[in-house]
Design a protein that fits this description.
Low-confidence stretches: none
Strand content: under 5%
Distance between the termini: 52 Å
Helix content: over 70%
Radius of gyration: 22 Å
Structural class: mainly alpha
Number of helices: 22
Mean pLDDT: 80
């Protein structure tokens, strides 16, 4: 059998095992290891199994993930997160779906902290989901808006997606960051509109958070309890944009700031601190193992050349530029469903990028579009990493999360269409 056929068989086996509810990290690691061994021999396969875990879990960038997770857990376990969402309910409680909207806005703000989708979804999700459930929000809406909102982490700068694209194509990462600002803000607005429409057609999915309207003075009094969390956000974001510290350092300092804020508010004790440490360790370990599984499977995909065969098929059809772009979009949407989005970009961009230039498309604009497609890949089944991680973090079934993200995927597709129709949305700030 050809390597491409072996790769296709591996993809099918992986999908079957995932649909049988085996854990995705283990499935990808095992299928990737066996497939790699079949093509390259067990000696090389065991070398991959030995190299990949250290290579990716020792990443300095990945170190930001447990830091931000711990920060979110401290805020959640000490009740600081409850203060934040109580303030949100005061201002948005008379708006149907207001807490879900506030959650999306919060993910957009937090996205400007770390630039990582998983960290954004887990940190905000850990705080926001329990608060929405207190007010009897539908689990699908609550989980869906958090999983989708988490993807904003790789659009609003600083963004790991833009860094990867810039390094592979030798484009200015600074220009890519600037180009992502307006699309990132629009993404938040699209999600808020989606929530408003869902609540309009089915009000039962998001009961009103407060029973009566409060005066401005009462709202201000309630809001003051959220100043600690707001201060942490301003501290972390301001420090990164002023160049005072890196995102990883920001995660550590943010965790320290959360602990100090909880101490000052007399809400920190050994019990909730211990719970935050244990839960953060478990969640970070789960994410790290999933990342290892993804990259072992990616190594198998690389030697099988199955993704390359798909790319060659798309770019070799001799179609008009917009038709080629449409096929590339479809290709990335499919690849995002079956493999890690960053790995898909690494494997295919060397073949796709020259075609994009030959078709006359602006490379900065395409970078924004590429990251937007990567975001969709993070929430589309069966390998929507955000959905699996969020499911484990907030302890809801993965199927519930996948059902919840469907309306937001539709909003994503509309957003992509808007970026294609009006490229200046991404390029306006560069003029």
């Amino acid at each position: 059998m050809s390597p491409e056929l072996i790769g296709l068989i591996g993809i099918i086996v992986m999908l079957i095992l995932v649909f049988m509810r085996f854990w995705v990290g283990s499935v990808m690691a095992i299928v990737g290891l066996v497939g790699y061994a079949y093509l390259e021999g067990w000696g090389k396969a065991f070398k991959v199994a030995g190299i990949e875990p250290f290579a990716h879990t020792s990443s300095y960038i990945l170190a930001a993930v447990p830091m931000f997770i711990f920060m979110g857990l401290v805020i959640s376990h000490t009740g600081l997160g409850s203060d934040l969402y109580r303030a949100a309910s005061v201002w948005l409680g008379r708006v149907r779906g207001g807490l879900a909207m506030a959650s999306v806005v919060a993910t957009g703000i937090f996205a400007a902290v770390c630039g990582d989708s998983v960290a954004t979804a887990t940190t905000i999700g850990k705080v926001a989901f329990p608060e929405m459930k207190k007010f009897n929000y539908d689990s699908r809406l609550a989980a869906g808006c958090l999983a989708a909102g988490g993807t904003i982490g790789i659009m609003i700068p600083p963004s790991l997606g833009f860094i990867l694209y810039g390094l592979l194509t030798e484009q200015s990462i600074g220009q890519l960051f600037i180009a992502g600002i307006i699309p990132g803000i629009l993404q938040v607005l699209f999600y808020v509109i989606t929530i408003a429409l869902l609540c309009r057609f089915n009000p039962n999915i998001a009961p009103l958070s407060v029973s009566k309207s409060l005066s401005l003075k009462e709202k201000v009094v309630e809001t003051k309890y959220a100043l600690a969390v707001a201060g942490i956000i301003v501290f972390v974001i301001g420090g990164i944009y002023l160049g005072l510290f890196t995102p990883t350092e920001a995660g550590a300092l943010g965790s320290f700031a959360a602990i100090m804020a909880a101490l000052i508010a007399r809400k920190l004790n050994w019990t909730n601190l211990r719970s935050a440490i244990l839960e953060g360790t478990q969640t970070a370990g789960m994410i790290a193992f999933m990342v290892v599984g993804v990259f072992i499977f990616t190594r198998f995909m690389a030697v099988s050349r199955a993704p390359n065969a798909l790319t060659d098929l798309v770019v070799g059809l001799g179609l008009p530029p917009l038709a080629v772009l449409g096929l590339i979009i479809v290709m990335y949407l499919i690849l995002g469903c079956i493999m890690d989005v960053f790995a898909a970009v690494i494997l295919t961009l060397p073949f796709v990028y020259p075609t994009i230039l030959a078709c006359g498309f602006d490379p900065i604009w395409f970078g924004v579009l590429m990251v937007r497609l990567m975001e969709i890949g993070l929430i589309t089944p069966p390998i929507g990493l955000n959905c699996f991680v969020l499911s484990a973090t907030i302890e809801v079934p993965t199927a519930t999360v996948f059902r919840g993200i469907f309306p937001f995927v539709i909003a994503d597709i509309v957003h992509v269409g808007l970026l294609i129709a009006y490229p200046e949305l991404a390029l306006y700030l560069l003029k």
